[in-house]
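New to this. Help decode both lines:
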Amino acid sequence: MHKTASFHEGELQAQRNANESDVALRNGANVAEHIIRPALPFVRQQKMAYVGSIDPEGRVWASVLMGEAGFLQPSDDATTLSIDLGKVAMQVNDPLWENLRHDGRLGLLLLELQTRKRLKINGDAVREGDRLTVHVTESVPICPRYIQRRIVELPTPGDQHIPSNARTGQVLGDEQRALIRRADTFFLASAHQTHGADCTHRGGPPGFVDLLADGTLRMPDYNGNGMFNSAGNVLIDPHAGLVFPDYAARQVLQLTGHARMLWNQPDPDGVTGGTGRFWEFETTGWIQTQLPEALRSEYVDASPFLPKGR
């Protein structure tokens, strides 16, 4: 069953703001209430998932899950997704685990960095021991633009020791700012009261995320599928989360705070690729944790779709 007509009020407003309502209607026909069957082999072979979740205070967080191939198993009817946490490299300081105790709404993004294939799966999750079952509410394949290709490998994730120490704060320090400035990839989580959580990819050239003098993050919003799920969510509820995985340094920086989209902005350097849109994000809290020492990563190449500005 498809959900073309189920855009909420924020998404519809964002589509109008961008003059892309017709584009959204066309691409919305690809949204289903189950995992589309051609994608099932892709789901089963994935080793990574990016997750949006909501904490008891209503704050939104984005997380990274690394597991063995097969840790994601769709049901025969493709309406549920089983996640075997025993095959996942668990970071105990990730807010995701506590969030699931209070709110089962999850937004999942499966992204194969080396091939640029990605699939969104949103739903309601129930955890029982090491098994997390996600009841799918919507799923849609997404275009491969703006993804930097990487090879990321972690042997036997479920057996990996991840240092449990974490650094936290409310104001970004020099180390966190440096990590953000060198990033070419991050993931954005947002949520809507009735439409659930969502997680999307954002990529650009290194340095595409600016840090303003007051600590606000500012980044271009490129042309996409026109559905404006993230922008629509934050029009209604500005709570959002970002996660910056630095695979080379084996670090993960999670931010929670408030996001907004700026429309029809001057862009003399062409950094938005012609959209004239920018995201701004104000951090209210952050967590910096480590990835396993056994993790290996290799940068392959940048997306050919990145804007040529600046």
About this structure: The chain has one domain: 9-301. The two ends are 44 Å apart (CA to CA). Helices lie at 9-17, 21-28, 40-45, 95-102, 174-182, 229-236. Confidence is low (pLDDT under 50) at residues 1-5.
